[in-house]
Amino acid sequence: MRILTLITALLVVSLPVRALEVLTTIKPLGFIAAAITDGVSEPKVLLPTGASPHDFALRPSDIRSINEADLVVWVGPELEGFMAKPLAQHPHVLTLTKVPGMPLFDYSKQAGHEEHADEDHDHDGHEGHHHEGVDPHIWLGPTQALVIAQALSESLSAQDPANAERYRANLLAFKAKVEAKDKVIAGQMKAVNQKGYFVFHEAYGYWERHYGMSSKGHFTVSPERRPGAKTLVEIRKALEEKQASCIYAEPQFSPAVIESVARNTGAKVLLLDEVGEQVPLGPDGYPQFMQQLADAFAECR
Ligand SMILES: [Zn+2]
């Protein structure tokens, strides 16, 4: 009897278990997932390089990847609306905007918004200044990234208790790395955070509040919406008056309008990438992504 129990126990232990497969929509969530699953499995990222979560359309192969994944991680319907339908039937979904304790900001409550609306006198809505609802760009805030990592560690531990210790240890390691990187970047941002700049779309609020940046605004609330003529005139004026010295384009969207607004103003055209296309997917991806963003902001001197 004893021996039989022992043999059974050995069998259970040595049984090959398929590693849990995590699928994230965008790469920065993949960076966080790779840190938490380090040593257990490697996450996959749904969106290919060059794609934007703001205007993505699922292909049949994407639907297959979603169905095959053991856990799907997305920001939420505020960002990846295209995921709502395929995820409705999925048994294991982590919706980050629904995570308890996630610090979320509402676009309409941001400083400068009312001011903008007053100045604007534009009530037809085409300028796109009146952005409402939750800002879904939570992966761009270091505080939010830690909450994402914690939620991921908890979801994975519940779904895969055999590796719970590992997920917890990975969470602690991730936290230590992000906090160390945050300290370095806070110093780096202090040197440049008085400089005015414009971003292409309203994506960087979580980062900007965290590091006290001096954004002067954006071309468009969301990249799939074209910048309004009135906005372009305002930005041009701000550049001519030297209220801002840089404008940030994005690798996923490079409208000619950015270059033309900057022309002959002396403003620098720089690049910010909200999804970290150039950063390799791996357990240290997130701190590298933070550094890449910091270096882009630091270029505006
Ligand atoms: Zn965005």
From TrEMBL:
**Organism superkingdom:** Bacteria
Pfam families this protein is in? ZnuA
Q: InterPro entries of this UniProt entry?
A: Bact_metal-bind_prot9 (IPR050492), Lipoprotein_PsaA-like (IPR006128), ZnuA (IPR035520), ZnuA-like (IPR006127)
Is Metal-binding among this UniProt entry's keywords? yes
Please tell me one Gene Ontology term that the record gives under cellular component.
periplasmic space
CDD domains to which the protein is assigned, alphabetical = ZnuA
Subcellular localization, per the record?
A: Periplasm
UniProt keywords (A-Z) are: Disulfide bond, Ion transport, Metal-binding, Periplasm, Signal, Transport, Zinc, Zinc transport
One MF annotation (Gene Ontology) recorded for this entry: metal ion binding
Q: Which Gene3D superfamilies match?
A: Nitrogenase molybdenum iron protein domain (3.40.50.1980)
Q: Where is the composition biased (Basic and acidic residues)?
A: 111-135
What GO biological process terms does the UniProt entry carry, in alphabetical order?
cell adhesion; zinc ion transport
Zinc: is it a keyword of this entry? yes
Show the segment(s) annotated as Disordered: 111-136
Q: Which family does it belong to?
A: Belongs to the bacterial solute-binding protein 9 family.
Described by its record, this protein's role is as follows: Part of the ATP-binding cassette (ABC) transport system ZnuABC involved in zinc import. Binds zinc with high affinity and specificity and delivers it to the membrane permease for translocation into the cytoplasm.
Tell me the protein's name. Answer: High-affinity zinc uptake system protein ZnuA
The record lists the organism as Aeromonas lusitana
Q: What is the lineage of its organism?
A: Bacteria, Pseudomonadati, Pseudomonadota, Gammaproteobacteria, Aeromonadales
